[in-house]
Amino acid sequence: xxxxxxxxxxxxxxxxxxxxxxxxxxxxxxxxxxxxxxxxxxxxxxxxxxxxxxxxxxxxxxxxxxxxxxxxxxxxxxxxxxxxxxxxxxxxxxxxxxxxxxxxxxxxxxxxxxxxxxxxxxxxxxxxxxxxxxxxxxxxxxxxxxxxxxxxxxxxxxxxxxxxxxxxxxxxxxxxxxxxxxxxxx
Length: 186
Description:
It is built from 8 helices and 5 strands; from the N terminus they run ααβααβαααβββα. By secondary structure, the chain is α/β, with parallel strands linked by helices.
């Protein structure tokens, strides 16, 4: 029986979430809110953590429309409309499937930014010499314009996920700045 003050899991969870969200998430959330934009996610490799990070931003109610966790290939098929043969041809962790899951969000969300993310955070997927563990595929559709990204991260699975989440936030910041030389003093 645990006594008050002896819940180590609670301490771990508290410590784990006190530093969240990252400065990149906060910056991208501010920019999205300033622009009156909404975002939605199709998450495989990050399994919902990307949307969770954005939900912690003060602007979350104004910017976060929702998301789909599509870790399993069958979810990609049922909810996002991907064909089984298409997934098998390119593998669940590929640029092609990542773009397709981002596009599949259009059936469920009307957000200005749709983000798909797949990748390999642990061994046992479709890793190869050209696609090692740590390879992450991101595909953002920003007001109808596609922005694909492939990056390889080093570290343990959680580190890879956290780095991938920050990379999505950085991509949003970079693309919005490019779109109209966005600048604000925060």
